[in-house]
Amino acid sequence: MQYVKLGQSGLKVSRLCLGTMNMGSKEWKPWIFNEKESEPIIAHALDMGVNFIDLADFYSLGAGEEVVCNVLRRIARRDDLVITTKVGYAMNNDINAQGHSRKNIFKPQY
């Protein structure tokens, strides 16, 4: 595996990053791999030298991060990995379950 610097962070990451959109809960999408099905995929990536793993809170509405991290706890050392995630997509229809920030609509009364 080849490794490159991640921007100006000083971290070295594998040129290949393991994307995890396909891991989580079939309740989200029927083609998703559950934890048991995801483990051999993650293990193979790690065996091949991948140390860069990409997640998103949106994947399986949070279950994706849980599945991947449960597997990683069993088979890897956290210090050996660079794990990234994305945020901002709607997790459900609730007004407070989406976006990066919200405008404060409450004005203090002094």
UniProtKB/TrEMBL annotation:
SUPFAM superfamilies: NAD(P)-linked oxidoreductase. InterPro entries: AKR_Detox_Biosynth, NAD(P)_OxRdtase_dom_sf, NADP_OxRdtase_dom. GO terms for molecular function: oxidoreductase activity. Keywords: Oxidoreductase. Residues 15-105 form the NADP-dependent oxidoreductase domain. GO terms for cellular component: cytosol. This is Putative NAD(P)H-dependent xylose reductase.
